[in-house]
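cache lookup: miss for this entity combination. No prior model stored, computing from scratch. Input as submitted by user K.M.:
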Amino acid sequence: YPVFPQPILYSYFRSSCSWRVRIALALKSIDYETIPINLIKDGGQQFSEEFQALNPMKQVPALKIDGITIAQSLAIIEYLEETRPTPRLLPQDPKKRAQVRMISDVITSGIQPLQNLSVLKQVGQENQLTWAQKAIRSGFNGESFPLQTHPTLFQVSMADLCLVPQVANAERFKVDLTPYPTISRINKTLMALEAFQVSHPCRQPDTPPELRA
Amino acid sequence: YPVFPQPILYSYFRSSCSWRVRIALALKSIDYETIPINLIKDGGQQFSEEFQALNPMKQVPALKIDGITIAQSLAIIEYLEETRPTPRLLPQDPKKRAQVRMISDVITSGIQPLQNLSVLKQVGQENQLTWAQKAIRSGFNGESFPLQTHPTLFQVSMADLCLVPQVANAERFKVDLTPYPTISRINKTLMALEAFQVSHPCRQPDTPPELRA
């Protein structure tokens, strides 16, 4: 069996999709190297020929691991779960797994894509805040059902890896979180864990000094 | 072990996310009942109190199965895969599974959300076509890498269940498919299979007579 070098994560400190993967790597105690891809500098480093050869979707995160490169945060997390199962990020019962995947998908395909950098650019500066807020509120409302049962569902799951970065985005887009007490409570509990702290946008190799904490 | 009634799929004939699940059910020979949710009629039947109690995200598809209700197409397909593994829609090798999930995620979180009905409404009638075309082209371009290797990857996979409905949407939004010969070829091969035909929007219980084929 070939020995592969340390995994490399292509990441942007502020990308919520990158943060999801950073939490998974931290929880599973996987050592890795970060190669920062600045989505704004030089017109977006994700558009460089070098990076496109790695991920033709021109998006972060991408993870080089075990001799392959995987893009898309959930595909990466599911791969880590299948190859490094400790600690588990998905329950063992298929019904509970379905619930975790459902919450994850609501965030990754229902909310986040609508407040992606490339979409916000198209929407235009003056409409960005309203647009992003609408997407987040609509998703958070809908989540009340699965999230109400969430705390008893499973300890820390893939859904949490999606939730925390999404809440941070909600705060960035000035969404009032008062109507979502369950989400706020879960977020607070999770943010007390080390894996969520070391992976935080304010503590990455590419975090600008003025945003460090 | 309790005996559950026949699964119920809440579906809209034209919804590409519903179509993904219909293909999975057909491939796995799972009998089910369809309850049509018309996303346009009555201001959108997905907004009814009755349906919201089932899926607070107010979206189709939702599948009632084994005593639970699952929303989000990929969560549903992964559940079917875990509980009804024949025929497999995911390869057994984790690296190949990652590739299938990556292609699936590119479509379900990179392309489709941007041409969702609710988003197109916000974008406005006059901009819809350009907006949707841009999202589809950008995704199809990026896919060239995984899709080039796709035919040798695995027989019929979850990625195919995402691809075929997305190609149909591309045609609906008048995207010229000439630049994507691999996608067109895979799509044509798949559309020859019965499971892709019986699940097609033109053959559903709620397909209007003038759109039947």
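stored under new cache key. The domain at 9-87 of chain A is CATH 3.40.30.10 (Glutaredoxin).
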